[in-house]
């Protein structure tokens, strides 16, 4: 809503200390002898420096006080019923009745002083301060109502260790309760993720195989369950190639943005394994039976553009502008009405939740058996011995 004079612009400007000093001096002048014309002018300048948009209700109040101070009581005709913005402004001004100009000026200065104080205390912290502590395999940050969960094992192509599955679940749990509007999952480095860390299958004492397979299936059930039940919009920012489970759970995301460098690969048969992440249900729904079979059964690797054409990816961006374009888009989306967005997500998901949990349980019990098979063990040993052969 544009409002002449009083609330013209909200732009980046003075640093916190100068804002605090000006807020303090405004506060001191108002308590001493009533606001002067100079205080009023200074407050008008101060409004332009606010970093945080105070919202339409406050802007209307500022507008009304500004008009009352500079022109006195409202005596212009009420704008027509369809001129919504000017009508709201007129109503706010008119509501001040015969408030004396000096009182309006004082109230304007007081209001700006309060806004400046809260604005300076809520200014954006540097990146290091925004990083949430307590994660070893992730970097979790919150900014612009977006919580970003970044997988952070770039040297291992963000392969998912047991610790990483657990930390992602914890980060999702925290994000479901924080004040963010959107949640992003992305990867650090050249890969989005190379899927399950094949070392998860190693160093298991011979007698413990069945127990470990059972534990793995429980962990996987809970991990995928978090994505099924997640109440807010989930966005995957696919910065590079994605393999295995990092691909299959994409069917549970709301938006998937990919760099044109990304690829999508689910080599389950090659690994003696079977699909998980609810992909045996979501992929045929998303891309049709034939294309899903090519990926999930025959391990066909898709380019980002192919994955987009098949409906798995929302949009593909050139790698050179990927981060800039995606984050501009997400920042705009994060300003949408939060509750409406969350309710829409939940309405869509609730239709499928029961089915998805049943699919998740079924996939995991099949996988639990697969992990004990020779086919699976041979594939893991073959990957791990590859390095030794080089
Ligand atoms: C609790 C259990 C839940 C199970 C859920 C079921 C999930 C299933 C899946 O996700 S199946 C998919 C599993 N992933 C893979 O099969 C990929 C294996 N990795 C590769 O094929 C390659 O590493 C690559 C194509 C991803 C990348 O190749 P390249 O560019 O040549 O890089 P490097 O191979 O040299 O990799 C660098 C470094 O990272 C290690 N690494 C990469 N991916 C994995 C992985 N998935 N598991 C373990 N380690 C991985 C690789 O060994 C190198 O390590 P090094 O530097 O040699 O120590």
UniProtKB/TrEMBL annotation:
**Transmembrane helix among keywords:** no
Q: What is its main location?
A: other
Asked if the Swiss-Prot or TrEMBL record annotates the protein with the keyword Isomerase, the reply is: yes
Q: Name one GO molecular function term.
A: isomerase activity
Report keywords, A-Z.
Isomerase, Peroxisome
**Localization per Swiss-Prot or TrEMBL:** Peroxisome
Task: Write down the superkingdom of origin.
Answer: Eukaryota
Instruction: Indicate the segments forming the ACB domain, all copies.
Output: 36-121
Instruction: Return the protein name.
Output: Enoyl-CoA delta isomerase 2 isoform X1
Species of provenance: Vulpes vulpes
Q: What is the phylogenetic placement of the source species in the record?
A: Eukaryota, Metazoa, Chordata, Craniata, Vertebrata
């Amino acid at each position: 809503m544009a409002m002449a004079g009083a609330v013209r612009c909200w732009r980046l400007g003075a640093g916190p200390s100068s804002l605090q000093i000006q807020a303090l001096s405004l506060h001191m002048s108002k308590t001493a002898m009533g606001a002067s014309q100079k205080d009023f002018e200074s407050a008008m300048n101060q409004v332009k420096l606010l970093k945080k948009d105070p919202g339409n209700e406050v802007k209307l109040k500022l507008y009304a006080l500004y008009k009352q101070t500079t022109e006195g009581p409202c005596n212009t005709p009420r704008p027509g019923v369809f001129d919504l913005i000017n009508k709201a402004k007129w109503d706010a001004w008119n509501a001040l009745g015969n408030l004396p100009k000096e009182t309006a000026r004082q109230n304007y200065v007081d209001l700006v002083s309060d806004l400046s104080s809260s604005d300076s205390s809520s200014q954006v912290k540097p990146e290091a301060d925004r990083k949430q502590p307590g994660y070893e395999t992730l970097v979790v940050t919150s900014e612009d109502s977006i919580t970003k969960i970044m997988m952070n094992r770039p040297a291992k192509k963000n392969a998912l260790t047991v610790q990483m599955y657990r930390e992602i679940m914890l980060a999702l749990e925290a994000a479901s309760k924080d004040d963010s509007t959107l949640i992003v999952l992305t990867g650090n480095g050249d890969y989005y993720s190379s899927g399950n860390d094949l070392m998860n299958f190693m160093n298991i004492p011979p007698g413990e195989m069945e127990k470990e397979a059972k534990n793995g299936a429980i962990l996987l059930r809970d991990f995928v369950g978090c994505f099924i039940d997640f109440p807010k919009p989930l966005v995957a920012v696919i910065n590079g190639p994605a393999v295995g489970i990092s691909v299959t759970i994409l069917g549970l995301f709301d938006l998937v943005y990919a760099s044109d460098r990304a690829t999508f690969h689910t080599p389950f048969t090659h690994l003696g394994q079977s699909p998980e992440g609810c992909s045996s249900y979501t992929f045929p729904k998303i891309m049709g039976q034939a294309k899903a079979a090519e990926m999930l059964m025959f391990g066909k690797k898709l380019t980002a553009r192919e994955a987009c054409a098949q409906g798995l990816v929302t949009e593909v961006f050139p790698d050179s502008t990927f981060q800039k374009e995606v984050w501009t888009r997400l920042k705009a989306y994060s300003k949408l009405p939060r509750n409406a967005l969350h309710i829409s997500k939940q309405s869509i998901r609730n239709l499928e939740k029961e089915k998805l949990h049943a699919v998740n349980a079924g996939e995991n019990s099949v996988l639990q058996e697969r992990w004990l098979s020779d086919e699976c063990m041979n594939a893991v040993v073959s990957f791990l011995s590859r390095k030794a052969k080089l």
